[in-house]
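Entry:
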Amino acid sequence: MTMTDATETAHAGGNGPAALLRGLLVGGAFGAGAAAIVVGGTIGKVAVWGSGITALALLVLTTAAFSARRRVRRPVVERVKAVAMIESRRATSGEYADVPVAFDLTVAPDDRPAFRAHVHRSVNLVDLPDFPVRGIVVVEYPPDRPWDVTIVSEPDAEWASRAARASLDSAPESTRVRDPEKAGPWCAIAVLGMLAGAAVVVLVFRGDLFTDDPAKPSSSATSPGAFGGSGRSGATSTTVSRSVTTADVSTSILIGGQLRATSDALLKAGVSTAVSVSVTDRRMTARGTKPDEWAPGQLPVVLTDLPYERMPELVREARTNLGVTGAGAGSWRIDIARDAKTRAVVIRVTVTGGNGTADVQADGTGRITATHSL
């Protein structure tokens, strides 16, 4: 078998109709699994999230099994040696003494025309001058896979002598050989399959992703702890009325991101702005949530703009740094509204303890602007 015959046979196996269909299916499965993980975590459905994890795990195991089977069934072919000329070299990283170097070689076998090939090899910085451009090296490769070229580190005396005497001309770019399984239509088909698989999952769950259905009971809202959160947050229930909307939680609202999750529950209930917002240990209350309830020129507080992650720190500041201690140290309250004069958002934390009361005032970013204790 000549090099041309081997290359054509590999291309037929790597980019034939069966291989392209396999690439489409593998890409589709990967895209669908990855999308299921993201979609399941976004909409809070454990079954969807788990199916994505399962699909990706099965895909990895199946691919590994097929790869192992292919390696076992592939006949053992003795690698042949040849001399090669370094057309160019490029270090792809320089963080360690041994750096990966990409070589472009002209390989000149004894029994077939010269061809171009890429080779990647780790080279110690001290040894890099031993591989000059236009220098001659000894390489080896399987005859049926000419793209699988490696540089021989320590050739025997015969090949070292041949390399020292060799004088080669550059092979044209048209003779370059590549692994057909890592290039060509297969890659494009696999990417297309990934996009198609992800699109199918998104379309199936588009209602949960993009539709704010008012018929859905808001009491089912849960914190993000189920997917990537701390796992300590409790369920949130909301109650909507004309002017006051409350969200109650089963754990302390300051723990594990529960404060933002409670705000999200209000948003799902249709509350995005309010004249004032108050927070206690198990409840968030929004008042004046309708535009017709606002006074002329009054600006509401936008719930999504509030610095919820800073608020537990503000409570701790009032509790500890201001010296509020005793049996009642856990009594606290956060009130949020816009200043009547400046119209800037003001966050006021009030803590009551056995030895008095402390206030911490912050701006809309959570930066402390004033403190007071009695």
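The chain is about 35% helix and 25% strand.
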